């Protein structure tokens, strides 16, 4: 009896546990179902919202002026017109003395006693540059000076004898033949005086030529002599001078540009390594063209400046007149495989590519030699981000003057 009751109790407990687990599993399934239904509802709501937003945006775009109107960019353009632009030709070349004077030994030469000037020093015409030893020549000159005095004494004696003979000839003590001989003696003595004076003057002139002097006023460029050096007629150039300190630039120019820069053309010369701008003028054109380089030489005269050193290099800008041409900012001109070009906006506000030839480049902009009439609407900025055929909204900018 007791055993059966225990069995019934155990069965009852087992049944209760099974019911508990079944009920828990049912709750989990209901929870999963509810979560899935909530996610589906959220997805449907999001899809509906996105669809209605796209539809409303399209409607707003259509109402604002047609599909894609909001994406058309604003582009700054300029109408350049035609302005007076100076035609400037660029050239480069070496700097040289306009009139270089090589100075060497003019006399017989000798040993250099002292050198009185240095390169970069200004000297006057006839100023002594170097002194040559003249001790031997000075003694020779002194000897010739003494011979003059001897000849003068002989001439005085001959003149006195002739005077005494003339006093006696009237008395018959002196014959006519003797008188002729005394006159001849007197004339010969006077001639010897003149010969001695000429020899002395020649010696003085040679001695004066011993020193090396400046042939004209100017600037000493180089010095190739030192004290103690023996110099002579074969010593070559001892000093180089620039006459008056005047300089010039030897500009190399293309054959086609030479007719555009006649004598008198204004130029601005800038030595390499310097920001100095020196005003000059073309004073000579080479009459020949280099057959290898097809270039000619233009000589530009410039005043003295410490920055102008012969042998150096310089750039030149030559103004060869003026012409009417469109003037654009540098940002408006682009370069490509086919050369330079600009972007213009046509009557339908569509970008068009226009090839151009660039002329003079100035501080105010780039002159267009050909390709534009000046009435076009030219894109100023953002040209690199635009392509031919793009539609834009042009905003006209006032042309710079």
Automatic annotation (TrEMBL):
Please give the Gene Ontology molecular function terms for this protein: efflux transmembrane transporter activity
Q: Which residues cross the membrane?
A: 33-51
Supply the source organism for this entry: Sphingopyxis witflariensis
Looking at the UniProt record for this protein, which Gene Ontology cellular component terms does it annotate, in alphabetical order?
efflux pump complex
Pfam entry (one): RND-MFP_C
Q: Which SUPFAM superfamilies match?
A: HlyD-like secretion proteins
- Recorded family membership: Belongs to the membrane fusion protein (MFP) (TC 8.A.1) family.
Which regions form coiled coils?
A: 148-213
Q: Which InterPro entries match?
A: MdtA-like_C, RND_pump_MFP
Q: Give the record's keywords alphabetically.
A: Coiled coil, Membrane, Transmembrane, Transmembrane helix
Q: Tell me the ranges covered by the Multidrug resistance protein MdtA-like C-terminal permuted SH3 domain, including all copies.
A: 327-380
The name under which this protein is listed is Efflux transporter periplasmic adaptor subunit
């Amino acid at each position: 009896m007791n055993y059966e009751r225990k069995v019934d109790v155990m069965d009852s407990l087992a049944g209760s546990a099974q019911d508990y687990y079944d009920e828990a599993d049912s709750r989990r399934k209901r929870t999963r179902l509810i979560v899935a239904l909530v996610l589906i509802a959220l997805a449907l709501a999001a899809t509906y919202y996105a669809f209605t937003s796209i539809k409303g945006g399209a409607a707003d775009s259509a109402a604002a002026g047609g599909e894609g109107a909001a994406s058309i960019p604003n582009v700054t353009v300029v109408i350049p017109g035609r302005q007076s632009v100076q035609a400037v030709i660029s050239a480069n070349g070496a700097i040289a003395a306009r009139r270089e004077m090589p100075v060497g030994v003019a006399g017989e030469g000798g040993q250099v006693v002292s050198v009185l000037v240095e390169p970069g020093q200004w000297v006057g015409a006839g100023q002594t540059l170097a002194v040559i030893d003249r001790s031997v020549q000075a003694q020779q000159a002194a000897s010739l000076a003494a011979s003059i005095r001897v000849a003068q004494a002989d001439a005085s004696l001959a003149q006195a004898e002739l005077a005494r003979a003339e006093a006696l000839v009237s008395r018959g003590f002196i014959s006519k033949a003797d008188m002729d001989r005394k006159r001849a003696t007197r004339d010969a003595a006077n001639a010897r005086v003149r010969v001695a004076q000429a020899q002395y003057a020649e010696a003085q002139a040679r001695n004066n030529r011993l020193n090396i002097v400046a042939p004209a006023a100017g600037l000493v460029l180089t010095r190739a002599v030192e004290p103690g050096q023996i110099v002579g007629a074969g010593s070559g150039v001892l000093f180089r001078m620039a006459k008056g300190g005047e300089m010039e630039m030897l500009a190399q120019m293309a054959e086609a540009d030479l007719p555009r820069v006649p004598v008198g053309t204004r130029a601005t010369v800038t030595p390499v390594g310097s920001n100095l701008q020196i005003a000059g003028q073309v004073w000579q054109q080479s009459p020949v063209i280099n057959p290898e380089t097809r270039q000619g030489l233009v000589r530009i005269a410039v005043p003295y400046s410490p920055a102008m050193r012969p042998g150096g290099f310089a750039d030149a800008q030559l103004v060869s007149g003026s012409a009417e041409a469109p003037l654009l900012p540098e940002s408006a001109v682009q370069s490509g495989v086919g050369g330079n070009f600009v972007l213009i906006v046509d009557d339908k506000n569509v970008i068009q590519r226009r090839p151009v030839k660039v002329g003079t480049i100035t501080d105010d902009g780039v002159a267009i030699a050909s390709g534009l009439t000046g009435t076009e609407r030219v894109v100023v900025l953002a040209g690199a981000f635009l392509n031919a055929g793009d539609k834009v909204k042009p905003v006209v900018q006032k042309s710079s003057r």
